[in-house]
Amino acid sequence: MNYTFDHELFLWLNFDGGPVMDTVMKVVSGTTMWIPLYLFILGYVCYKYGWKRAIGFLVCLVLAIGLSDIVCGIFKHSGPLKHLWESFPVRHRPMFDSAVRDLAHVVSYGHGPYGTVSAHAATVVSLAWISALAIRKWWYDVIITLAVVLICYSRIYLACHFPMDILLGTIVGTISGLSMFFLWKKFDIVLQKTTFAAGKREK
Question: What pTM did the predictor assign?
């Protein structure tokens, strides 16, 4: 892909914030920092719905994140379905894009060459949708929205993605997250009917 309409926005959002900012953005972009949030989501869903229904939620959550990552890999020619659409024109990450790489602030080059579509954006947005619809609390909506914005911005700050990469990842994540939420609800209905029927038989 050779479109450049988001280059100026990228360069405005990507800047040298110094060593402390670099470290913070690397941590935000990683996994370890968010483990307490993931545990909270599972704990709250288990508390609200019970462990049996929480297992179904966990399965659908993993499917949502995995599906998002796999779909993004198709466009970046990576992952298990990397050969599915080999004619799709890849787009380099900003750090490797000849038009902006000399102007960009790059913290680390330890990444694959292609950035469209952003798997970080897709996976965190899919998690946000399915968890927010399950938890249904305004304070959680605020927390997960801030987390999504922070993670997505960190990818631009680290010169891993252009804004359009993030937007496309958000679309993929929204479709995946909503789809898996409704799958969980279908599974949940079947589980409740089965449990109810079993309870009647015991009586």
Answer: 0.93
